[in-house]
UniProtKB/TrEMBL annotation:
Annotated catalysed reactions: N-terminal N-formyl-L-methionyl-[peptide] + H2O = N-terminal L-methionyl-[peptide] + formate
Taxonomic placement: Bacteria, Bacillati, Bacillota, Negativicutes, Veillonellales
Task performed by this protein: Removes the formyl group from the N-terminal Met of newly synthesized proteins. Requires at least a dipeptide for an efficient rate of reaction. N-terminal L-methionine is a prerequisite for activity but the enzyme has broad specificity at other positions.
Name by which UniProt lists this protein: Peptide deformylase
EC number, UniProt record: 3.5.1.88
Length: 153
């Protein structure tokens, strides 16, 4: 496994729509492994492929309950009930803001073995899913955030 360089806000790839993964290969699985290692090393809870310079619909995330890998995730449902909470981003270091997100969502994605999995996260995990899926369509949390603030490290 290898640590990857995290792309920072201002990089054009963060504004692009990521391409679907057509075939899951050894390289796809290696990239998932490297993304997870990079996320954990950076002490993040999620990382999307565009954040490491790859325009692919791939996400890794972990809310403290174990690693979840998503390939070609698709939002199927989103509750009208919203949660308003703080977010940060590995691509926008040192900034935090409050973002309204659906409290519950339903997402279909492929796992590393090409199997279709349906997730129904709530609360914080739903927030991570939505934040990372935004990266796949070129949206950064700072575009949705209120009360954006810089936090001294």
């Amino acid at each position: 496994m290898a640590l990857l360089k995290i792309v920072k806000a201002g990089a054009p790839i963060l504004k692009e729509t990521a391409s679907p993964v057509k075939t899951i290969t050894k390289n796809t699985k290696r990239l998932l492994n490297d993304m997870a290692e990079t996320m954990y090393e950076a002490e993040g809870v999620g990382l999307a492929a565009p954040q490491i310079g790859k325009s692919l619909q791939m996400i890794v995330l972990d809310d403290g309950n174990g690693l979840i890998e998503l390939i070609n995730p698709e939002l199927l449902e989103a509750s009208e009930e919203l949660q308003d909470g703080p977010e940060g981003c590995l691509s926008v270091p040192g900034y935090y803001g409050d973002v309204k997100r659906s409290q519950r969502i339903k997402v279909r994605a492929l796992n590393r073995h090409g199997k279709v999995i349906v997730y129904e996260p709530e609360g914080f995990l739903a927030r991570i899913f939505q934040h990372e899926m935004d990266h796949l369509v070129g949206t950064l949390f700072i575009e949705k955030a209120t009360n954006l603030r810089k936090v001294e490290e």
